[in-house]
Amino acid sequence: MTRMGGFIFLMSHILDFIDEGGRILNGHGAAIYIHPDVVEEAYGYELSFSWTTDIKAFATKTPDRKTPGKHLLRMQLWQAAYILAGRPLAVV
């Protein structure tokens, strides 16, 4: 998946689900506010989406450091998109 492909994957799954009346909940059961720019916001408006390259590596190797809190929304969106795509993520 390219960086732009990751963006399109997130946008299509997340926004289509919301448009159909769905809600995405965080780990505490509260709804995450989803708006048209939510993916850009999650990436801090860094539109090269370079972080997407890093996250692909995490599919096969656990990160060496704890993920910063500022990445929480990104992680929530990726997890939700994969669940919506029928490919839920599992921590092993």
Can you characterise this structure?
- This protein is mainly α and 92 residues long.
- The chain contains 4 helices and no strands.
- Helix 1 crosses helix 4.
- The longest helix has 17 residues.
Q: What is the number of helical segments per DSSP (H or I, 4+ residues)?
A: 4
End-to-end Cα distance, whole Å, is 22 Å
Roughly what percent helix? 40-55%
Task: Please outline the major beta sheet.
Answer: none
Low-confidence stretches: none
Structural class: mainly alpha
Percentage beta strand: under 5%
Number of E-type strands: 0
Oligomer: single chain
Query: Measured on Cα atoms, how large is the radius of gyration?
Result: 13 Å
Give the helices and strands as they follow along the chain.
HHHH
Average pLDDT level: 82
Short recap of the structure:
With 92 residues, this protein is an all-alpha fold. The protein is built from 4 helices and no strands.
